[in-house]
Amino acid sequence: MYRTKVGVDLAKEVIQVCIYRNKKVQSNIEMTPNEFLCWLVNAKPVTIIFEACGTSNYWKQKAISAGHDARLISAKLVATVRQNQKTDKNDALAIVQAASLPDVTFIGGKTVEQQQLQTIKRLRELAVKHQGAIKKQLVSLLLELNIRISNRKGGIISAIDGVLEDASNGLSVECRIAIDTAKMNLKVSIEAVHRYDDCLENSVIAHADCKKILKLEGVGTMNAINLYLALGCSDIGVFSKGKDASACIGLTPIQHSSGGFVKLGSIGKHCKNSILRSQLICGAMAAVNQAVIREAKTKKDVWIKGLVERRGKKCAAVALANKTVRTAFAMLTQGTEYKAELLAA
């Protein structure tokens, strides 16, 4: 790190910049985004610490391109260090103070490619939520009118069409129009999810790292992107070990050790990114189900079968997800390929 540290508190319209050098705050001023961009280009190389938040990845990329040492720091750590009331000046100063702590862990930023993949993934998640919400509301509202619909025969769209065409159910013209409008919104959401899926599949093909991760057991398009977003950054602040990445995702037992006694608990129910962990475990469960019903061909199949016999499928799925994260970390950091170890003939 350079001797001069700059703490930057980002906001939508203004940016607070605190310059710290020779154990003193040299300045703590407010800039517009354009003024800050000009400052980045003209200033001598320094260490710039951004609080991890919206637009922080963009500004980190700009700072690095201007020749600075740019890093991201946890907003939770900054809030813990901040003194006095919450203001832009106090936040910028707290960022510098937090970055000066011994053995502080910085956050790895995302590349432009990762940001674009994350955009598609988040839009898909939003479309899936809208799709589920419309389905549940239509089913529950029609049930209030004692109209029961099922998606077993032809899907929920076909079932709603049948309700709209049924003249004996007593629905008014206005109610039929409202239900038809909701049905059209549902169709749009379903089509949006399919289009997002196509975008993700094409993106995976275009990324060599994602294609490598696809070779792992229980990893499909979505999990390949999840692992690439979580582990695929080679910048400062990434995990030093695969087990650290797995612990951050929430796939290792909770540890509560003190006084030389090591106490390991269960896998925590609450984690920072529950969606990522859930999708990894679902993919691992699919791989476990396949490994149980077929003849073992690889050493990992034997390991899965033995684990299922001892602990059950759920524990085996979590253990496989843990192993998947650690293997993907090794592949991305070392540039290796995954090859399953076949059993001797």
Describe this structure in words.
This protein is α/β, with parallel strands linked by helices and 345 residues long. It has 3 domains: 95 residues, Nucleotidyltransferase, domain 5 (2-Layer Sandwich); 95 residues; 118 residues, no CATH class. It contains 13 helices and 7 strands. Helix 5 crosses helix 9 and helix 6 packs antiparallel against helix 7. This is Transposase for insertion sequence element IS1111A. InterPro entries: Transp_IS110-like_N, Transpos_IS110, Transposase_20.
Quick tags:
345 residues; alpha/beta; 3 domains; 13 helices; 11% strand; globular; Transpos_IS110; Transposase_20; Transp_IS110-like_N; Transposase for insertion sequence element IS1111A
Helix and strand sequence: EEEHEHEHHHHHHHHEEHHH
Strand content: 5-15%
Low-confidence stretches: none
Strand order across the biggest sheet?
3-2-1-4-5
Query: What's the shape?
Result: globular
Number of domains: 3
